[in-house]
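Hi, here's the filled form for the chain we discussed.

Project: internal
Contact: R.S.
Residues: 223
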Amino acid sequence: MKTNQKPYVMYGIFIVNTLVFAAQYLLPQLHVEQQLGMFSPSVAFRHEYWRFVTPMFIHFGLMHFVLNAVVLVYMGKQCELIFGHGRFALVYFLSGVMGNLASFAFNNPTTLSGGASTALFGLFGAFLVIGWHFRDNPAMQALTKQFALFIVLNFAFGIFDTTIDLWGHLGGVIGGALMGEITALPVLKERFAPRSRITAGIFFIFFAVICVLLGFKKLGLPV
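And the returned structure, exactly as it came back:
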């Protein structure tokens, strides 16, 4: 991807997040959080499978929205220019789905979770993989260290903050790391062995299936 192109996907995500948050704030009677957040019983008993995707667009409070928006703009812009539009979209949304699958599988059944952080942690995970493949590139290494520090700090704060969805973050990192290997980069693809990309795809599907099965089992449903 040429560096003079604009990160249109990131801008689109930012606009959707902003519009959804505005609806949450201005139209509380719609109960957007309850309708779109990850709530395991609604998925298992009411078959509301869109909740594996929609939690990425809701936020609980202004600070939650602002923090994720800042990270999305700062990191999303750089990642989209490096991955390209299509790869960036795949990494962002599929790692976000994996984060929500992890929330479905491991969080308390009464937990309502949401936020762009599952997808943002996916970007972190993907970029760690890219950093590994480009260990000889100082610019890539500098960005990788910045993103790695952010991951460590977020997990550290999450230990003391029970409102943070650690399972969602962990699932996002795992999903993002696998997607980073699967999608590779539009340049220097030879650094990503076909066998490792196929293996990452198999593991992604495996983890997704396991999370679904564990989520249903947690709620006492046959699997």
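Let me know if anything looks off before we file it.
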